[in-house]
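Input.
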Amino acid sequence: MTAEQIAALRRKVAWRILPLVILLYLVAYLDRANVGFAKLRMGQDLGFSEETFGLGIGLFFIGYLLLEVPGALLVEHWSARKWFSRILLTWGVISAGTAFVETPGQFNAARFLLGVAEAGFFPGIIVYFTHWFPAALRGRALSGLIVAVPVSLAVGAPLSGLLLDVTWMGMAGWQWLFILEGLPAVVLGVVTLVYLTDRPRDARWLTAAEREFLEAELAAEARAKSEVAKLTLWQTLRMREVWLLAGGIFAANTGGYAMGFWLPTTVKSLSGGSDQASLAYTGLYHLCGLAGVIVSGRVSDRTGQHKWYCAGAMLATAVFLAGSAQPEQSFGVVMVWLCLTGFWAVSWPAPFWALPTLSLTATAAAASIGLINMLANLAGYCGNHLMGYMRQQGASDRQCLLFLAACYGLGGIIISCVRTKRQSYDATNV
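Output.
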């Protein structure tokens, strides 16, 4: 194929695969994070303490751990289309069902089951991208996925603020928030089963020549990796870099997940404003993150410096977040710090998730991604439970922000120790 034909093929694949996958992840992230929005009214109505919320929010990640590695392997060896459809249908029903919890036990069970239902989705998507995108373009594709995080929260925060005042059919606004934001996942579960394509060889929307080119290109890449290092699963799990990546994302996500869930509460406390105003400020924070995601995928792919962009973004997040915690600042100044934090806080995942897939065989990469994401989600439990405990014990907002900044800083230091090779950028592949 000519360079022009290859470029056209890249665009064709990207437009077919990325919009749906980004939409799926947008809905997924909103359904896992909207409890932070609902908390502004839910806690008052149900009488839940800060520690109760911290535990319940964190239990989502314990449930998520159960199917991380099996989920990634199912995508590699079975069917991404069927696995993703099952995930969407079950998590949509459970997310909407959270509207009817009344006790801490029911809340904990709902959050745990939501994690079980969604387990394997994110690592499965990363493995799925290896079936469609060569290594040099994977960071760009992942940035397209990660862009769903700030978009879902930037849109979801003010939308949730409006839903909090809804009182239809005798139910509170926070109940309608869970119902109306959970049902789209059920619809998308059916769409995924019909629309998504597992591999290039199954794509009737490609020509025979295009299918053969993609299959041959990705097969050659897989063979090259196998020839360099034929690793067993056990050998993969013993690799130094796998555990450094796991440790780095554990540290960063301890701060990141807690920041995402507790930001509305923190902003309301610091600003003294209404629920709607606090969620609008939260949306502005995530809107800045959208710019960071777009920049990160392009720069890390163009330079090949995935590791250093990832580590640098984590450290920059730590610096700006610590700046927001300095005493005797007006809320306007604090929001400037937080907007800068928002830009960098979601700039690191796209280059980070390109790292495990660049030097491992397909099976080893699938297993290591699942393991790394297990640690990433364990951090979600630890960070949120710790934040709930700290707030219950009387820790100030600024003390909590400094704790989160320290987590990001540690993650950046760990990632900087990972040994990796620079990846070249081929402009003809764009």
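The chain has a mean pLDDT of 85.
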